[in-house]
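User: quick one, fold this
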Amino acid sequence: MRWRLLISLSLVVVVVLVHSGPAGADSDSSPPREDPWSWPIDREGLGERFDPPKSEYGAGHRGLDIQAPAGSLVTAVAPGQVTFVGRVANVDVVTIDHGSSRSTYQPVISHLKAGDTVDRGETIGTLVAEPSHCTSSCLHLGRVAPNDDYLDPLDLLGGGRFRLISPNGPPPKPPADYGTLRRPVAGRVTSAYGMRVHPITGKRKLHDGTDFGARCGTAVRAAASGRVTSTPTDRAYGKRILIDHGGLITGYAHLSSRRVHKGDRVSAGSVIGRVGSTGLSTGCHLHFMVWRHHRLTNPQSLL
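Assistant:
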């Protein structure tokens, strides 16, 4: 009888171990792994680093200061949904929920609204100059866990525009946006995408494209192959052309003339019109616009 009792107890122990799994397997409370973030701004340097407070209302630095000129474009560090755009303690703030954490940006003026979705690297606003603890203008980037604990943004930030790769084996694939569009016209950028004071109306508003300075009559070329969807003329943009590339739409404004019509198929680099100064314009230039999934996007991020 004793040996039968020992066998029964052994079986019970084996069953308990099989169903319970390794010790501590169900007690792992480590946070889920997060994908790396991209740098939200072209930085000149780093200011004060993350220094979490000892208590909920204690002193400390709850984010990362990134030094950059006022007026710089600020982009989303990862895909997500905008949850807040407004002022907190008289500072303009944008918050984006990425699921595993939230990112916060200040002081940033944004054209977005709560509920909007954004892609990694999509422009969300413009850095503004406001009094702060920084010695010069800077972006304060925050990272907040779902339980509202503050986390170090540097843990997810990589090398920015550059990253080290192994010299052995095939090179990594370029980013999805790399080389999507070609420049539609030669010439320097005279006004970038972002918030600015309109040179004619004097109102501060979003400059919804990139201006390339060029002489009137300069050939304007399609930034990618696609189909012409519209060739409108209006008071603000003057003569312009809209081309659908499948997922991307490009716009070419202030033209002096157009060589294509609605419904035409165009190839990348084909001449579609000529630079002009029609509409609300202060001189000859091309106003180049991009919509990505029907949302305005900084053209320079795709050129």
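User: anything notable?
Assistant: The longest strand covers residues 248-258.
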